[in-house]
Amino acid sequence: EHDFPQLVFLRVYDRLTGNISAIPDDLYGSFFETMIKRTVTLRWARVQKYNGLWAIVRRVPSNRQLDQPDIPQEEVSADLYDDSSLYAYFVICLIDKTEIEEKLKTLMNDIAIDKTFSRSQISAVNSIKSNFFNGF
Fold first, then answer.
1. Paired residues of 86 in beta bridges
2. Which residue stretches of the chain are H helix?
3. Least buried of 56, 79, 107, 133, by fewest C-beta within 10 Å?
4. Cα–Cα distance between 96 and 7 in angstroms, integer?
């Protein structure tokens, strides 16, 4: 319940900044800052703790580490693999997907697009609004 607003915030932030090559404020204008600030203030009353579970996680080296030409392969397998067990505890929380979508759509639609926005910013905002939940 306490972590869920932060998780939504991070997801929204990633969605707005993940696939862009420009500075978000330049791309979206004041829409970006307003969206981020309002997302932080959202409350999610219907989040319910469903269950918790333990899972064993095996750590493996990343491909970047394996592909380093300056490290001999025999050292890679010896130094980068860790045979120790790592356990993680997951808390599963549930919320209706439509509630998230409706709240965020309302939030986006309530942000005024005015004459301070350039054509390209208006286009970027309209694009993110129409594609926001693809892969969300």
1. 57
2. 4-17, 24-28, 30-41, 63-66, 73-79, 97-110, 119-131
3. 56
4. 15
Q: What is the pTM of this model?
A: 0.69
Separation CA 74–CA 59 (nearest Å): 18
Residue 91: φ, ψ to 5°: -110, 125
The torsion angles phi and psi of 58, rounded to 5 degrees, stand at -100, 125
Q: Judging by beta carbons within 10 Å of its beta carbon (0-12, 13-18, 19+), is residue 34 exposed, middle or buried?
A: middle
- Two tokens, residue 51: 């269950």
Tell me the CA distances in angstroms from 8 to 50, 59, 120, one per residue in order.
18, 27, 27
Q: How far apart are CA 71 and CA 57, in angstroms?
A: 26
pLDDT digits (tens, 9 = 90+) for 34-55: 999 999 999 888 888 787 778 7
Token pair recorded at residue 130:
């129409």
**pLDDT tens-place string over residues 10-38:** 999 999 998 888 999 999 999 999 999 99
Contacts of 39 (CB under 8 A, 6+ apart): 8, 9, 12, 13, 104, 107
